[in-house]
Write a structure and sequence with these properties.
alpha+beta; 4-stranded mixed sheet; 4 strands; Peroxidase, domain 1
Length: about 180
Amino acid sequence: MAELATVARPYAEAAFSVAEKGDLNVWSDGLRQLAELVRLPEVAEASSNPRISRRQIADLLLTAVKPAPGAELKNFVEMLVDNHRLALLPEISVQFDALKNSSEGVADAEIRSAFPLEGAALTSLVAALERKFARKLRPTVVVDPSLIGGVSVKVGDELLDTSVRARLAQMESALTA
């Protein structure tokens, strides 16, 4: 996995430097769609079929992206196809989004809660977390009943765990030490 990330990094950085001159969101969406397509077994089979030309594979992928990609994204996909690097697209997409988020001062936040969070409760929690992490957050809420209560928040490589399960584990550790 680390090797895949290392090989994908220059591609993601190159795509980002081109996308900065245009619309980052269009590129991000296009790369995300292409990454989903490349994960399909049919696409993997077609791309390894020697009877299907590299141009046909690129055209197949590009026609599935909506809205239709611009010339730069088309060139990028054609270059990946020509260099037999289609398998990198999911990792390129992830790294591109990380670069985009960094440039916009935004971070993805995975909020795990024992109960569904919606409306005002989610809004006030996100506002408090944005103050704590000092950046704009894009939250994803996952319901995890094993937490018992409270929340566990992951932003990048930082973890804030205020769940009842974590507190019980701390108490157990303190009592058995």
